[in-house]
């Protein structure tokens, strides 16, 4: 996606949309109709900025119990790793680090096949081999936390850069697409970019609030591999508590969502893209309770300053809200007329998958095969 080119005259709404919290993130209106005299604050700007997910314990009693037990020290997975010779805490690849061992166990849950032979290794400063939306619910990381001896400042914390707000962003309003977020610094491919934050709730709560269009699913209720793996891991930690492990299993199987409508961060403004530059993974920090889950956005291509950030909202949202109305203007956008002319519209999912996973040679070979087949049929 080409970098966004703002107009010469812009209306600065706020130098920092989030007040005194976090790094300054300005917000602009680039609509020609807006001026200081006629500017109205949209409802979408009226929310509380948060630096950590909000946990609503009133909607789920078992989650409330889990958090109480966690506050008493139950269920935490921590390490005693100390600083190495080079000044870094080398938790990753350390067979004596419990957090690294858990990270490797979760890595083994990732599916592999001929097109995706490699699993993603979640090391703090490594390039991450992003796997795309269809692998979202089997791609998990485990991070060292502030309760570890390393305090999370180590090689086994994929959330380190997002926790430190390493990247700079700008929120802006433009044409019919509404608000968007663009990067203000260079972000290499495979880099943790931002954490999607909100209030952790079940889907039924989203429906009751009418916030389901804003909310993002971070746990699939049908996923059992993670639940089984977490149960085995919890049994192996010192001070294993059977009641705690039971509560984790009973709550982890629920369909959890992050609702950013009332409480969120700048990630709530990131728009949909049929061929997005962000991919998503789930990271656990310190344990396996739902309140220790985090949604991280990883760059799936080099992102240059000024480029708009996008991620795939998913087939359900696209079919309900974007059918025939998508404005992402990417290669595989279903409104792309050139894409339809050459007969590739029906191969949307195929193209997107190969864009994420394959080398350029394999990608072009498969596209040429589809194109040739289409011509022969015509």
List keywords for this structure.
disordered C terminus, alpha/beta, Class_V-like_SAM-MTase, four-stranded mixed sheet, SET_dom_sf, SET domain-containing protein, SET_dom, single chain, globular, 25% helix
Strand content is 15-25%
Secondary-structure element sequence? EEEEHHEHEEEEHEHHEEEEEEHHHH
Number of helices: 10
Unreliable stretches covering 5 or more consecutive residues: 341-350, 354-367, 369-378
How is the largest sheet built, in terms of strand order? Answer: 1-2-6-7
Largest sheet: 4 strands, mixed
Q: Helical amount among residues, as a percent range?
A: 25-40%
| 3D shape | globular
Total strand segments: 16
Structural class: alpha/beta
Mean pLDDT: 80
Radius of gyration: 22 Å
**Distance N to C terminus:** 31 Å
Pfam families: SET (PF00856)
Domain SET: 167-314
Protein name: SET domain-containing protein
Organism: Caenorhabditis bovis
């Amino acid at each position: 996606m080409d970098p966004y080119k703002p107009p010469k005259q812009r209306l600065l709404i706020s130098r920092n949309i989030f007040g005194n919290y976090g790094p300054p993130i300005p917000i602009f209106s680039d609509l020609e109709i807006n001026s200081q005299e006629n500017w109205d604050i949209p409802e979408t700007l009226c929310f509380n900025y948060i630096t950590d997910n909000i946990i609503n314990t009133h909607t789920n009693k078992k989650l409330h119990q889990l958090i109480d037990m966690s506050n008493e020290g139950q269920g935490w997975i921590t390490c005693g790793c100390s600083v190495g010779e080079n000044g870094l805490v080398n938790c990753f690849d350390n067979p004596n680090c419990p957090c690294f061992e858990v990270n490797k166990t979760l890595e083994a849950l990732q599916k592999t096949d001929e097109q995706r032979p490699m699993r993603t290794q979640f090391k703090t400063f490594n390039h991450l081999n992003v796997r795309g939306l269809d692998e979202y619910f089997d791609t998990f990381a485990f991070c060292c936390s502030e309760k570890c001896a390393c305090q999370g400042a180590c090689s086994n914390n994929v959330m380190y850069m997002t926790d430190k707000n390493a990247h700079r962003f700008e929120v802006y309003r433009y044409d019919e697409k509404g608000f968007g977020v663009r990067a203000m610094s260079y972000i290499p491919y495979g880099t943790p970019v931002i954490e999607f934050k909100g209030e952790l709730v079940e889907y039924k709560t989203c429906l009751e609030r009418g916030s389901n269009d804003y909310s993002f699913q971070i746990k699939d209720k049908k996923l059992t591999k993670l639940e089984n793996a977490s149960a085995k891991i919890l049994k192996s930690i010192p001070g294993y508590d059977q009641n705690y492990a039971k509560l984790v299993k009973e709550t982890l199987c629920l369909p959890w969502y992050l609702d950013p409508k009332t409480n969120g961060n700048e990630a709530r403004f990131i728009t949909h893209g049929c061929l997005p530059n962000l991919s998503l993974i789930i990271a656990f920090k310190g344990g396996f309770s739902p309140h220790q889950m985090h949604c991280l956005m990883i760059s799936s291509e080099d992102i240059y300053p000024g480029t708009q950030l996008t991620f795939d909202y998913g087939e359900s949202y696209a079919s309900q809200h974007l059918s025939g109305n998508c404005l992402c203007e990417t290669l595989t956008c279903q409104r792309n007329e050139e894409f339809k002319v050459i007969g590739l519209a029906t191969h949307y999912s195929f193209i997107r998958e190969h864009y994420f996973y394959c080398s350029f040679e394999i990608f072009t070979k498969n596209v040429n095969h589809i194109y040739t087949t289409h011509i022969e049929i015509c």
